[in-house]
């Protein structure tokens, strides 16, 4: 068995502390919280403390390496993903300092610290020049997503068993005010996002090594993939569903190396089977309740049930998106944010600048502007928006480069997964803040974009590959 070196263990540990900080709030009133004597309170405060200590320790380490001239300072001036993100978050830092009296919030500084800490870790890895670290960190993140998602689904297992066989939407499976392990539970948009990322990886992995599977293992694995697809559809998160289907289309039509008919067939099967299954459950449920309509008491009971759950055909957020009950209000938030942004704010309002404008005005929609570009403008101003757009286009360009050249490339699982994740997140940034701030999306985007950026550079890919024989 190959021995894992100490540097890899250290990098993995710091990465785990950063991942464990997702969704955490920093609370400086520790005495009040400790008096509550809740095990999760101690655990969560420890997660905050260990992340801060780890980040500062690595910052000091990198600084010492620079002083001892064991750290290449040239990496700071290469206009790559890491450097662009550093400038992007620095613009938010300036905005936060300029508006300190208005938006002073320790959680804003904590988010900045986590963002810079993550980038500092990547700088250390670059200096070590060990490409395998990126692959390890990506897989660690996928395992964390798997563990957390399964934990939430286990807690909600009774709801799933009741709702899915009846063809009911589980869009309300989580409550924003619900506490899970001492902190707010993920909204359904976040939970469905995690399931989509997980399933994209599982699909890429299956078709990458399926020749090692026996018929029984293949059947079990495919059923597992389709079951996750069913959950994604049942959660009715429109943004997730669109981004998930988009990423699948990218994979089967441009990356998967089979004949066109096979690619289209697999794409249709993986996308349509969960939808048809869910629709069938909904139809059967509707047929079963028809005889009960003569019973007024049962009619009233069914009416209550319909208010509790959303039927796919009657009240689906997907098929009946114009219904007022399911209107997300995103366009209202976008218009208000743009129209009310103070044009003289070159560097915006600082981290979570959308909350500065939206918290009091749109309490019923929430304080999240749900758009990466607008968030970049509000939080980092014009500078932040330009950097975010550049990052978006640069990542899109790298994906296009690989897709154009994929026929002549031997693309590994890590590259395939990274392309799927980035395709998903680039589209998602149009309807969610996504990777524009420290979050799970940010971590996935960072590690995936660095991986494909390195791949493009190593393979020297171009948009229009030139055959030297033709020139000669």
Layout of strands and helices, then pairs:
Layout: H1 6-19, H2 30-34, H3 39-67, H4 81-98, H5 100-103, H6 106-128, H7 132-155, H8 157-163, E1 179-180, E2 183-184, H9 188-209, H10 215-234, H11 238-255, H12 260-289, H13 296-308, H14 312-315, H15 330-340, H16 353-358, H17 372-405, H18 413-428, H19 440-459, H20 468-471
Antiparallel strand pairs: 1-2
* Anisotropy-based shape: globular
Instruction: Going across the biggest sheet, name each strand in turn.
Output: 1-2
Count of helices?
20
Specify Rg, calculated over alpha carbons: 24 Å
Mean pLDDT: 82
The beta-strand count equals 2
Helices and strands: which structural class?
mainly alpha
Q: Fraction of residues in helices?
A: 55-70%
Low confidence ranges:
307-315, 321-326, 466-472
Q: State the distance separating the first and last CA atoms.
A: 50 Å
Describe the structure.
- The protein has a domain at 137-310.
- By secondary structure, it is an all-alpha fold.
- The chain is built from 20 helices and two strands.
In short:
It is built from 20 helices and two strands.
Label this structure with key terms.
472 residues, mainly alpha, 2 strands
